Amino acid sequence: MPQIASVSRNAAHDRLRERFCSTDLWDNLPVGVCCCDTEGYLLGFNRRAIELWGRRPEVQRERYGGATRLFTEAGVLLPKEQGPLAEALRTGKSISNQLVVKEDARGRRTVVLYNAEPVRDESGVLLGAVGCFQEAAAPQRLFSASVFADQQNHEKDLRSFSVLQTMPVAIYATDTAGRITFANAACEKFAGGELRVGSDLARAGWQFYSLEGELLRHDEWPVAITLKNGHAPPPVELLLERSDGRRFRVLPHPVPMFDGVGRLTGALNMLVDVTAVHEVDVQLARLSAIVASSDDAIISKSRDGVITSWNAAASRIYGYEDHEVIGKPITIIIPPELHQEELDILAKIRRGDRVDHYETVRITKDGRRIDVSLTVSPILDRLGRVVGASKVSRDITERKRNEQIQRLLVRELNHRVKNTLATVQAIATQTIRSAKSPNEFLGNFQGRLQALARVHEMLTNTSWQGAAIEDLIREQLLFDSDADERINLNGPNVVLNPQAALHLALILHELGTNARKYGALSVSQGTLELRWTVRDHAGVLLLDWKESGGPLVRPPERRGFGSPLIERSLDAQAGKVLLNFEPEGVTCEIVLPLEVEGHGVEEDRSSFASRKDGTSSAGSAKARVLVVEDEPLVAMDIAMVLSEAGCEVIGPAASLDEARSLIAAGAVDAALLDANLGGYPVDDLAAELKHNSTPFAFLTGYGREGMPPAFRDAPLIEKPFMPEQLLQAVRQLIGQRAMA
Question: In terms of C-beta distances under 8 Å and separation of at least 24 residues, what long-range contacts does 309-314 make, across chains too?
Answer without folding.
Answer: 314/393
